[in-house]
């Protein structure tokens, strides 16, 4: 599972990786993955007219951005770990999507403006906090939910627990297979107070929600028969952060007629941004 220093595992030398970790912590201390509202408005096309909204459920207050016509069916974006709604900025101004959907990008718990600094390790609670946002706009139709990386299992849990709100899923490099989740040395290191003091807050939150992910995914194993919506999985063959075996897991858990697998051989974990055209095409294929 990718996390705050997930790319560092690419370094073959553990000592070098450790130095990179500490150097990154010092260099980027205090950084944020979120975008200010003023910068967001400036970056989006004038006709998008973004609204910055919030939803409170079970003690979790979530911030989200609404863009485009609210009478169209919702398309909901869930970011990875770490991240924020602004990772989907280019999607929120895509005219093809704006013509077909009401676009909603959410700061998941602990990130952006959603209870920043406080991780929510339960996928069930994350899904329950997101559900009222989908419910608010359900009169326009059930949502297509796209989840990248850690946002993938959150999207799956959302569809399992709240099927009346979800029409389809798009999982981009989603971490859904518990057998692929192993704690790496840097996950362990980031649990120790001295390193936590110098790591950026988003990175600490990331590690705290990733730490129990294997167990959270195991809890979902008996729930997969609940998943009755169409699922598109986009999984790059060159993904060094989320193993491509996650796509194989989806093929084992879902009937062939329900699952559409897209496996670009050269794509990395960052296919969401590297090949936005591919992702947009898959979203539009689900529109009807």
Task: Please tell me about this protein's structure.
With 288 residues, the protein is an alpha/beta fold. The protein has helices at residues 14-28, 37-43, 89-92, 95-100, 123-136, 151-161, 185-189, 193-198, 201-210, 213-220, 245-253, 271-274, 276-286; strands spanning 51-57, 60-67, 74-78, 102-106, 143-148, 166-172, 231-234, 259-262. Strands 1-2-4-3-5-6-7-8 form an eight-stranded mixed sheet, with helices on both faces. It starts with 13 loop residues before the first helix and ends with a helix. Mean pLDDT is 88; it is low at 1-32.
Major β-sheet profile: 8 strands, mixed
**Overall mean confidence score, pLDDT:** 88
Q: How many strands in all?
A: 8
**Secondary structure tally, helices:** 13
Distance between the termini: 33 Å
Shape: globular
Provide the helix percentage: 25-40%
Residue fraction in strands: 15-25%
Strand order within the widest beta sheet: 1-2-4-3-5-6-7-8
The assigned structural class equals alpha/beta
What is the N-to-C succession of helices and strands? HHEEEHHEHEHEHHHHEHEHH
Low-pLDDT stretches:
1-32
> How big is the Rg?
18 Å
């Amino acid at each position: 599972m990718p996390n705050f220093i997930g790319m560092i595992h690419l370094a073959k030398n553990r000592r070098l990786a450790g130095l990179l970790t500490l150097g990154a912590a010092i260099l980027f201390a205090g950084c944020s993955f979120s975008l200010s509202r003023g910068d967001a408005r400036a970056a989006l096309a004038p006709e998008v007219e973004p609204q910055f909204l919030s939803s409170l459920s079970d003690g979790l207050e979530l911030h989200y951005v609404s863009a485009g016509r609210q009478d169209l069916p919702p398309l909901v974006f869930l970011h990875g770990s770490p991240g924020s709604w602004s990772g989907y900025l280019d999607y929120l101004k895509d005219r093809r999507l704006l013509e077909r959907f009401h676009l909603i990008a959410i700061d998941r718990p602990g990130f952006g403006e959603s209870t920043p600094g406080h991780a929510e390790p339960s996928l069930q609670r994350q899904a329950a906090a997101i559900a009222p946002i989908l419910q608010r706009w359900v009169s326009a139709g059930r949502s297509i939910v796209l989840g990248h990386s850690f946002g993938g299992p959150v999207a799956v849990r959302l569809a399992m627990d709240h099927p009346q709100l979800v029409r389809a899923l798009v999982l981009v490099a989603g971490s859904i297979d518990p057998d692929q989740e192993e704690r790496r040395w840097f996950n362990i290191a980031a649990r120790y107070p001295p390193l936590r003091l110098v790591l950026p807050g988003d990175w600490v939150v990331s590690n705290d929600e990733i730490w129990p992910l294997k167990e959270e995914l195991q809890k979902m194993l008996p729930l997969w028969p609940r998943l009755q919506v169409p699922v598109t999985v986009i999984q790059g063959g060159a993904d060094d952060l989320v193993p491509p075996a996650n796509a194989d897991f989806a093929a084992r858990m879902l009937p062939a007629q329900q699952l559409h697998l897209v496996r670009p051989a050269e794509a990395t974990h960052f296919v969401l941004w590297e090949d936005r055209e591919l992702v947009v095409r898959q979203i539009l294929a689900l529109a009807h």
